[in-house]
Structure to design on (414 residues):
């Protein structure tokens, strides 16, 4: 079987980025197929459910980012083999995807409608999820979300926490993670300092 | 470790039902904790993210129905061991959960707003997902969604396809699956005729 090809937007975030990080950290050969956001309108006509990321593997084209991420995690050795630890990992992956969906639902809104929807995210929805994540982290020992080691749950958490903290989401304060769940802000910084992740972004910066 | 306890609404559908089916078909001992819908307002105050189903396992209370379903599937022997087949299974689980979310978003709407949202589901969104599922099924051989055998993807598909076909969703024609994806309607009937599933519902009917 040829190496898997991951097709996703050419930026360091979103639903494709944790998959790229998993492949990279695990030393798994893959084709990193990146396209400009402007090309998406055409590309989506050819993808299952009109979505990205998609993974080309063998003669299949697979959608659903968490499914692809778990597959990448298994290839990369970043997914728990123990069923209960895998449950803890999957629970966090799905909770994080809820956050993607809830923020995603506010894209395309304008003016007051956007302001109102984002205010609801910033004051209600996101703090609830962030506190839940902080509680999960604490109950698993405080260092990682599952398996007492870095897994794909941490990679997805890093990408989403950085997004929320980026200041690029209008009406979402860049210090929201720090104020709603301080332990999670410290966790984000610690996971972000993982040598393989630092190296990855240092290398990307030149591209 | 004591047996897992699954807490969910006392009806034969929704996000908890595929988990119950998996435990039952796999002969996995579990506590089937069912509550009346009216009790949910109180119960949700005590559950992670205010959601059900939740699985009590060891000293953890776990949310996110697809994560719990995969765990149940592993215990029940209804989840692929091969990573690629597991990817195909997970892809369908996540696509089916999208359907839950999209139908769920129309609950609580009234009158014209409900009519409009459901019409959009019936003519655009659901046919797209149903055709995608039919295509997946065909590409895996036509009988099951993954691993050439019954897996949790088929259990979740059965519960959701029956729900869409129930006639209980206002403005969603009960023959939508049959008209949008005839092969999927035949599949639904075939999976529903699995002896263990037939026995399960025959036994439930007396309760």
């Amino acid at each position: 079987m040829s190496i898997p090809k991951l097709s996703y937007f050419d930026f360091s975030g979103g639903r494709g980025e944790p998959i790229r990080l998993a492949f990279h950290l695990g030393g798994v050969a893959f084709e990193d197929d990146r396209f400009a956001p402007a090309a998406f309108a055409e590309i989506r006509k050819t993808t299952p459910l009109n979505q990205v990321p998609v993974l080309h593997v063998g003669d299949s084209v697979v959608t659903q980012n968490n499914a692809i991420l778990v597959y990448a995690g298994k290839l990369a050795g970043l997914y728990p083999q123990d069923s209960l630890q895998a449950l803890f990992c999957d629970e966090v992956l799905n909770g994080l995807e809820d956050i993607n969906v809830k923020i995603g639902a506010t894209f395309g809104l304008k003016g007051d409608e956007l302001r109102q929807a984002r205010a609801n995210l910033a004051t209600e929805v996101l703090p609830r999820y962030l506190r839940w994540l902080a509680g999960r982290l604490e109950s698993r020992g405080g260092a990682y979300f599952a398996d007492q080691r870095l897994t794909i749950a941490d990679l997805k958490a890093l990408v989403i926490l950085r997004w929320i903290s980026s200041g690029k989401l209008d009406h979402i304060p860049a210090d929201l993670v720090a104020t709603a769940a301080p332990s999670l802000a410290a966790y984000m910084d610690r996971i972000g300092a993982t040598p393989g992740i630092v190296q990855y972004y240092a290398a990307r910066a030149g591209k």
